[in-house]
Design a protein that fits this description.
With 464 residues, the chain is α/β, with parallel strands linked by helices. The protein contains 15 helices and 19 strands. The mean pLDDT is 88.
């Protein structure tokens, strides 16, 4: 049976002339990892495997003789190769191995204890986010509320685990993922700093403990991760939006956040101007910073507040070619605002986001188009609404996906100008060219906002 002969572990790198001295110091301080052998590196140094037990307490003894600390692929020791422990080492994930290295000096703890932990308590992999590779711990991971985990941790200080995980992942910061209150329109991330700072810092902005930058497609997105949510799963939609927006267009982004779609529209799509609305003040602060950092602040305007009232107060009516409605789980409360923002003569495109049952996406699309025709009529706009594409962004939950519907809403002659020729006022133009009309009367899908429905949060509903 094939067995791994080496593993990437934490090491001290030293010149050959100092390697023996450093090894002896580590051995005396019980910081030498005897499960692995020293090995020569490609740059002529010696990688000396270390354990994490009191490593920094002995730093003064070896710091002048060590080039740096890091990770390196080291061969297993002869003892490890012959005593049967290797088979357990080979079964461990990187996270399990890190936990074992932290706990293995605790009395009564063995590798089977680590392997038997539930994956929710000890995940096999941890997320790294941002340009600095911040380490993100799931909400329930390494929780002392789990009896089995609490038993093997014993009296060890759990805060030391965060520092240990940061080193094994070469990460400068560790945070615990928070949960977003579905009843709150502000949508704060709830993330909590664990190391090197703890809790949620009072200060925010560039240079503060929670400030992070995520660069995607050359676009820098900075924000305070303890205050603002961020979804990595939207990257394909960000790219797509940058390609859809045409040079010279005016765009309204009703739920802009830190600029998920506003920035691609400006940087990649070269929009003439984007009006961005955001009601989370921390997100709006980050948005303004990002517009400046990406050199597009002169082609943008940010309004802080509820887009449904801000659009009216700031006269965002009849001004744009395209509206982005990126609120989840539903942007239904902003559909009327979106329709009103479109150019009164030309109409335009609505990009409507929503969390929808995977079995209902077409019914949702047909109902959405019919609803947009109704809203247009109520605003004295005899418009058509035709969906030309439904994009699946990501899976949101079992049987529920995040979709975006691209819908042209406007006069019939402008539909034909866009190359869309249909007989009915509302419907879905399927990829093969078949047009499916929206029934005049149809049942609402389960994701429709309703006081007694699955989605019933008042803050998402229409306000005027």
């Amino acid at each position: 049976r094939f067995r791994r002969m080496s593993m990437k572990v934490q090491v001290l790198f030293a010149e050959k002339c100092n390697a023996k001295i450093v090894k002896d110091i580590l051995q005396n301080e019980k910081c030498l990892n005897k499960d692995f052998r020293m090995v020569s590196t490609s740059d002529g140094l010696i990688a000396i495997p270390i354990s994490d037990n009191n490593i920094y307490q002995s730093k003064k003894e070896w710091s002048d003789r060590v080039v740096r600390i890091g990770e390196y692929e080291c061969p297993y020791s002869t003892a490890m190769m012959g005593n049967g422990r290797l088979s357990l080492e080979g079964k461990m994930s990187r996270v399990q191995q890190a936990l074992w290295n932290w706990l293995k000096n605790n009395e009564g703890v063995n590798q089977n204890n680590i392997l038997s932990l539930d994956v929710a308590v000890c995940p096999k992999k941890l997320e790294l986010i941002g340009d600095d590779k911040t380490l993100v711990i799931p909400p329930n991971a390494f929780s002392l509320d789990d009896n089995r985990f609490q038993t093997i941790v014993g009296c060890s200080n759990i805060d030391n685990l965060w520092e240990h995980l940061s080193r094994t992942h070469n990460s400068p910061r560790v945070v615990k993922r928070g949960t977003i209150d579905p009843n709150s329109p502000i949508r704060k991330s709830g993330h909590q700093l664990l190391w090197p700072h703890s809790s949620i810092p009072e200060e925010t902005g560039p240079g503060t403990p929670g400030w992070i930058t995520v660069t995607e497609q050359g676009i820098k997105q900075s924000f305070d991760l303890t205050r603002v949510m961020f979804s990595r799963g939207n990257i394909t939609e960000k790219i797509r939006m940058g390609k859809i927006v045409q040079q010279g267009e005016v765009v309204v982004d009703l739920y802009s956040g830190i600029g998920y779609y506003t920035l691609p529209a400006l940087v990649i799509g070269m929009a003439c101007h984007v009006y961005a609305c955001e009601w989370n003040e921390d997100a709006a602060f980050a948005l303004k910073y990002n517009l400046k950092a990406n050199g597009v602040v002169n082609r943008s305007t940010v309004y802080v507040g509820d887009c449904r009232t801000m659009a009216k107060e700031q006269s965002l009516i009849g001004i744009c070619n395209r509206v982005i409605l990126g609120l989840l789980p539903s942007s239904e409360g902003g559909w009327r605002t979106g329709v009103k923002a479109l150019n009164r003569t030309l109409g335009g495109w609505l990009h409507v986001h929503g969390n929808v049952l995977e079995t209902e996406w077409e019914a949702w699309t047909l109902w959405l188009c019919r609803r947009l025709v109704t809203l247009s009529s109520e605003e004295a706009l005899p418009w058509n609404a035709v969906c030309t594409n439904v994009e699946k962004v990501k899976s949101f939950a079992p049987t529920v996906n995040h979709y975006v519907a691209d819908i042209f809403v406007g006069p019939k002659d402008r539909l034909e100008h866009q190359g869309i020729r249909v007989k009915n006022q509302a419907g879905f133009l399927r990829p093969g060219g078949e047009f499916k009309p929206s029934p005049e009367s149809m049942d609402k899908p389960s994701c429709a906002l309703s006081p007694d429905g699955v989605l019933h949060q008042q803050w998402m509903m229409e306000t005027f």
